Prior knowledge:
Strand order of the largest sheet: 1-3-2
Number of strands: 3
Order of helices and strands: HEHHEEHHHH
Shape: elongated
Number of helices: 7
Largest sheet: 3 strands, antiparallel
Radius of gyration: 19 Å
CATH architecture of the largest domain: Orthogonal Bundle
CATH topology of the largest domain: Arc Repressor Mutant, subunit A
CATH superfamily of the largest domain: Winged helix-like DNA-binding domain superfamily/Winged helix DNA-binding domain
Helix content: 55-70%
Distance between the termini: 27 Å
Amino acid sequence: MYKDNSLIPTEAVRLAALGLLSEGERSYAALADEVRHFTGRIVGPSLDLIGPPIEVLRVEGLVDASAGSGPAMVLRITDLGRQELVRLLAANLRGPLGEFNKLVIALKLRFLHLLDSPAQKLQAELLAEICERELARLTDLRRHYADRAGHLVDWLDHDIEQVQARLRWFRNLGDRL
């Protein structure tokens, strides 16, 4: 993790793998395919998101094999892996909402149900706070360029509307939890 308790790219891959295994055993090959599919569909192909081999999760004691070998090896999460999953789900997000942060948000939402109710509510509140900071940043930028020519202000208005909608969504999520 970075110093601000936010995930580095390889930890996002780790979060995806542990989250999937917490829902049930999977073969090594199926787990690798599903992690690659999810991350690739959110951010596209990225060398940053080539995580350490799943074998590293075994060496660290986060998963173990219940049967098979090689790509057919069936993996399951351990108690230590569940602790790591909770730690990763509680991580912060960095700066403005870029592609990597979209992946982390998607992973948090994908596996939010694995946390207890108070932790779920806290995550929804933290995600809403991130939207509030993003909204303040974009609003300040829009104000600075309000009297300038070009289409930047129109684009910023578009972004502001999207962040406002996202903020409402996270607040509604928090109310439902």
